[in-house]
Amino acid sequence: MKNSLLIGRLAGIRIFLHWTFLLLLGFLVFAEVRRGSDSGAVLTSVGFVLALFACVVLHELGHSLMARRFGIGTRSITLLPIGGLATLERMPEKPRQELLVALAGPAVNVAIALVLYPFVAPLGAFEGIGLSHGTVGLGFLTALFWVNVMLVVFNAIPAFPMDGGRVLRALLAMRLGRPRATAIAAGLGKLIAVGFVFYGLFNAPFLVLIGIFVYFGAHTENVSVQHRELLRDYTAGHAMLTNYLTLAPTDTMQQAANTLLAGSDQDLLVLDPAGQAVGVLTRPLLMAALRDNRLTTPVQEVMSREFETVEIGDSLTTVYARALRQPNAFFPVLENQQLRGIIDQTNLTEFLTIRAALSH
Ligand SMILES: [Zn+2]
Q1: How many domains is the chain partitioned into structurally?
Q2: What is the percent of the chain where pLDDT is above 90?
Q3: So where does Zn(2+) get bound (predicted)?
Q4: 355 vs 168: CA distance, rounded Å
Q5: Within this chain, do residues 51 and 129 fall inside the same structural domain, yes or no?
Q6: Distance (Å) from CA 107 to ligand 1 centroid
Q7: Which of 205, 231, 257 is the last residue of a domain?
Q8: Of 232, 228, 219, which is closest to residue 183 (Cα–Cα)?
Q9: Helix-helix angle 163-176:140-156, to 10 degrees
């Protein structure tokens, strides 16, 4: 993740700290000092937040290690001030697997709470819930115990894509299928997210951030699942553009600019005399060359030679997933090494719009 600091590895997974997390620690120290706390209290406070986030890392590790059992790797775990985020290579699509992966995180906090319980019970853990300084003073472990209990309770809220929401989606998917289950879980997730924002505005500002995070998370994941469903039975050959403009490696930038004007294509494919794709002249590359007044420079000196291709028989869901990973997807479509068409972001979107219209 961008703007993050690598702090170490656990079970081979890189753990990152988002820079805003340092802001949180700084704010905490500032608040303590302003309150007139001595250095011991400041250290306890900082130590507590670090212990809390260690529990969050272990929670995320629970998700990651369960996912690993199903052959799904984890790119990284990132700590944000509002919680942790394990970036799995993909989400498990089988409901039973998603259920177990979602449960594995909170299960870690249950285990931590159980381990802490014998230490906190004699201290009167049940007399006062809360993270006031009185409680921290009462006992570091007591407060940590309650934090883990709260993590379990909070994650049980069925606000997709939070853990409880994933459990709900997985359970619904067993009966209704994944697209329908996701639509319902995402709808409920958005509703609860709006609740978080309104409640948070007056009571707990961090809940506003979580609400926004949940709302957009639910939206994005639902759109992606519905899109995959629409694309499920199709291949690259169904969606590719067959009417497109191309350039020769020896064409000049002036000719490239004229070609761009003649059509609506954003990127232009460069073909050698044998008709093989040898490069892509993207719009930004062309514009940069024009700004430098390189009107007579041949295309082959400016074009990008690094481009991904897809096979005509590739499933569109795979192509869609690959397109999501890059800002301006542009894939030549090949059949037996021969160029048959092009797929880009625009015509993928058009194909989706048409499928959505026809499916109603
Ligand atoms: Zn979780």
Answers
A1: 3
A2: 33
A3: 59, 63, 163
A4: 28
A5: yes
A6: 9
A7: 231
A8: 219
A9: 30
Cα separation, 282 vs 302, in Å, equals 9
Binding site members for Zn(2+):
59, 63, 163
Catalytic status, residue 60: yes
Q: Is the pTM of this model over 0.85?
A: no
The confidence score (pLDDT) of residue 131 equals: 46
Q: How far is the CA of 161 from the centre of ligand 1 (A)?
A: 9
Using CA atoms of 57, 59, 65, 68 in order, give the dihedral in degrees to the nearest 10.
Answer: -90
| Residue 37: Cβ within 10 Å count | 16
Domain coverage including residue 177: 158-231
* Ligand 1 geometric centre to CA of 346 (Å): 35
Query: pLDDT tens, 241-276?
Result: 888 888 999 999 998 898 888 877 778 889 888 888
Q: Which residues pair with 311 in a beta bridge?
A: 334
pLDDT given for residue 127 in this prediction: 53
Q: Which of 112, 136, 156 is the last residue of a domain?
A: 156
